[in-house]
Amino acid sequence: MTERAESLPGHRQRLAHACKRAGILPALTGLRGMLRRDLRILAYHRVLDDERLDGFDFDPELVSATADDFRWQVRRVARHMEPVRFADVIAHIEGGPPLPKRALLVTFDDGYDDNYHVAFPILRELGVPATFFVSTGHVDSGMPFEYDWLVHMVRNAPPGEVRLEAGPEGGALSFDVPSALDARLAVAGDLLARMKEIPALEQTALVGRLASLWGMPPRPHPQCRPMTWDQLREMDAAGMEIGSHGVHHRMLAKLPRDEMAWELQESAKRLSAELGHPALSVAYPVGGPDAYDDAVVDAARASGFKAGCSYISGTSQAAHGNRFELRRIPVERHVDRHWFEAMLALPELFMHPTPLPRD
Prior knowledge:
This protein is globular. The protein has about 350 residues and is of the alpha/beta class. It has 15 helices and 12 strands.
């Protein structure tokens, strides 16, 4: 690494570089290992080859790593941690063998096809299992997620003021589309945050209203393609685990209760039918404190899942905590190699905190 720690943008990243230069990360790992024995779960979204980043027309915040950095991260995990599967975690919870001292799960949310083309070959080569949480309706249709399409539209919309009047399909909305790409991405990020505060069906209506306004109806796109069932079956046969991310990637706690239960039951049914065996785990779409609740957990259990993941930052005491509220360590595109090492060594200090819902 050639960057000076003082020039890095965030305090966690600067501290990680300082700890690396001082050579104290191994000592921190050892000290933490004496004090805590817990389960680390890494959370990824997309891994892209460098050439696919050129002209990328969707949300760059969902690119967790380049292929080269992901290979380095997986090699680090293989050497210094003890990768496990959800099957191991569930067996341990239900009275089976203890988990290894440095147990770690690798997970992916959403099910983009770069998970198959880029991440899967690296994981298979290095002998590290992973769980891929997929939204079954998008596997069936090949369509992008609503959140992805919203960012894509904002990136390509004509500049100017947007005003949507309140109507039966959603509330009023007003914002400006600037000319510069960085400013557009900031607007898209703000829209996503605002959208995730409203009921899930209103989120769908909002994306539809903007698509109609701008003449950009959702369509399959080569840069934002879900995996196929054939690809998922191949990964499953190779030792990867496939879990549920609902049917339509909707925030489950923000759905009417009957539709929330259907999302979980239907995704479980489709996964079982396509893979030939039940899926063990579910990750709640978006996964923050307002994305799931006790009713969602009860419905996940009733649908046959054995464990559930949030997107709340943290580690989990798998045998003693709630197996349906497992916390994870997000890996995001700004996490460089020293920072990644530090997150593995002392996640409480170095991982991103969970953004709280806005008032």
